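We modelled the chain as a single entity of 123 amino acids. Its sequence is:
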Amino acid sequence: MADRSLRGMRLGGQSLQSEEGVVFSERQVREYRASDGGTFSVTFAADAEIPERWTNAKSGQEGKLLDEDGNLADATVKETKPPRTHWDMLLERRTRAELEELLEERLQYLRARRGKTGDKKAS
């Protein structure tokens, strides 16, 4: 058993990989200020959308984004469309008159079906 051991290498002590030929992606560091006045840095990818608020991993406090001058960044209000409901999508495809006609047809079908099954139960 002793002759099968690995020699000259500490297992798990060192990595055999090197950083040769590795190209790191571009990054940007942004500063945030917590409610207690402390600041912390967060690293993002260069093309990432930067959030206006971020939670500090060490203190757990939420910080607000600072601009390059160290002042609080202006909050940008994004225009959001109201969510479309199923009714809105139905009205895009059909008129109200068509929907009422379909509803009436379906109700007649269900009433006829219920009348037939009601007769079977009675007999």
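As a brief sanity check on the tokenised model: Helices lie at 86-93, 96-122. Residues 96-122 form the longest helix (27 residues).
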